[in-house]
Amino acid sequence: MARAAVLVWLVSMTLVSTHLAQGLGVNWGSMASHPLPPSKVVAMLKENGFTKVKLFDAEPSTMDALAGSGLEVMVGIPNDKLEKLAKDYGSAKDWVKENVTSYLYDGGVSIRYVAVGNEPFLTSYNGSYVKTTYPAMKNIQKALYEHSKDIGTKIKVTTPFNADVYESKSDKPSGASFRKDIRQTMVQILGFLKQEKSPFLVNIYPFLSLALNPDFPKEFAFFDGGGRSVQDNNIQYHNVFDANMDTCHYALKKEGFEDLEIVIGEVGWPTDGDASGNVRLAKKFYDGLFKKLAKGDGTPLRKGKVEVYLFGLFDEDQKSVAPGDFERHWGIFRHDGQPKFPMDLSGKGQNQMLKPVKGGGNDGEAMIEVSAGDVAALSLSAGLLLAMTFFTLM
Ligand SMILES: *[C@@H]1O[C@H](CO)[C@@H](O)[C@H](O)[C@H]1NC(C)=O
Ligand SMILES: *[C@@H]1O[C@H](CO)[C@@H](O)[C@H](O)[C@H]1NC(C)=O
How many domains does the chain have? Predict the structure, then answer.
């Protein structure tokens, strides 16, 4: 009887956590000098309950490891390829053949999206990719359709944009519009996304709001409330994530595209390289984010579940530090595949460490980067971790 009860409890726990983790993706970057074996990484992703990955390219070793995994994949095309793909349909066809359709064999890679370029309209790129992004998107989609109508319909082309593609004159969501210098191109792209039923991808970084602006009200970067809020007409915003996503909604609406789905291409918090980049604040941010995602009630203007890709999987020591020293510390795992701090993807706030990459070079105890202030919290979490292990073993 008791055993049956425990079994039912375990089964329902499994169902609940699978349900809550559904839709959680993560960005798997490749700018590391000592990348971990892709097959071990894929095993770890599955063990932790991730269901999707977003790549910035389509490296064969990564793609081969993803084959048969059931993970849903967004492959990426780097910005420096956009010009060629825009001007030469033949090279778009070659790209699709080599990096998409060759993986669609039985038991192959479950490719759902192709991300054409990465934040191509970032202000610091000085407009370098404004003319080529849209034609490259069209050529890739056309090549997918040319392979087969089924593939063209199933695999969607999109482009992850930085949130600096829109702005707000009033500093409130309702005052939003797309940046003037790219507005015309944006409208073309939005029309394309609508026609193809593709989502609008945007990367939202509360960390950058806080790190780049000394006057930013700190608590507004997190999800715990208690800080300053922003009143916009009859809506009160308690965190910058919601406010930013609704700013995106208003910018789309202003151009007549409020029906486009918004997917968060990147969201996360670094653990070093800035006064606000540390384990304590990263944990605070992710705890709040996962609770929010588990509730599934979206933002004030966009009710319902939000599709999210965390940024990022590992620390990457070959990323440019031009934006700041924090750039190499975005990983929820260290470069060696060990988790940095307790994280509960299901949003239930259990202080469990994610499972590490096995055979990634360091199979020992996870080294936890903590300041003295975190020690009490962590010994509590170690207790919970033991309790969880105990239950799972039963
Ligand atoms: C396919 O993607 C890989 C990795 O991103 C790249 O090196 C290669 O050039 C691409 N293939 C074609 C035909 O463009
Ligand atoms: C953009 O312009 C700035 C200032 O002129 C320059 O320093 C930077 O290298 C340029 N960036 C690109 C990607 O062209």
Answer: 1
